[in-house]
């Protein structure tokens, strides 16, 4: 079953330390190379939001509470032979 993540980034809290970039297992975090946040740092960006697996490593390591991570799990379908017995299970 696929597990996907969704990130909320409070980029003005970011100090551009790069710790999150180093731990993301799917390598979708980077520091902005063309702009700064209100604190004068290059903030973290997500290069491919659809690839986030919701592991929350970024949120765990970030010292400045920049990330909120939501996880969603795909709806689990019952096997074909069970359809009609009862409603499909939802996660
Ligand atoms: S939740 Fe995991 S996969 Fe998603 S951006 Fe953070 S470290 Fe990367
Ligand atoms: S760990 Fe936090 S403060 Fe450091 S670059 Fe990532 S989001 Fe910014």
Number of helices: 2
- Over all CA atoms, what is the radius of gyration? 18 Å
Total domain count: 1
Oligomer: single chain
The assigned structural class equals alpha+beta
Largest sheet: 2 strands, antiparallel
Which topology does CATH recognise?
Answer: Alpha-Beta Plaits
Shape verdict: elongated
Named once each, the bound ligands are:
iron/sulfur cluster
How many strand elements? Answer: 4
Defining key terms:
single chain, 91 residues, alpha+beta, Alpha-Beta Plaits, two-stranded antiparallel ribbon, elongated, binds iron/sulfur cluster
Describe it.
This protein starts with a strand and ends in an 18-residue tail after the last strand. The longest helix has 5 residues, at 19-23. The chain has a single domain (3-82), classed as 2-Layer Sandwich (Alpha-Beta Plaits), CATH 3.30.70. The protein is built from two helices and four strands. By secondary structure, the protein is an alpha+beta fold. Residues 14-20, 44, 61-62, 64, 66 line the site of one iron/sulfur cluster.
């Amino acid at each position: 079953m696929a597990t996907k993540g969704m990130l909320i980034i409070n980029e003005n809290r970011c100090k551009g330390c790069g710790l999150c970039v180093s731990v993301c297992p799917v390598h979708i975090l980077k520091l902005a190379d063309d702009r700064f946040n209100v604190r004068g740092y290059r903030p973290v960006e997500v290069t491919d939001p659809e690839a986030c697996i919701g592991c929350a490593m970024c949120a765990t390591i970030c010292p400045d509470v920049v990330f909120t991570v939501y996880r969603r799990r795909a709806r689990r379908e019952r096997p074909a032979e069970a359809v009609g017995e009862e409603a499909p299970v939802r996660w």
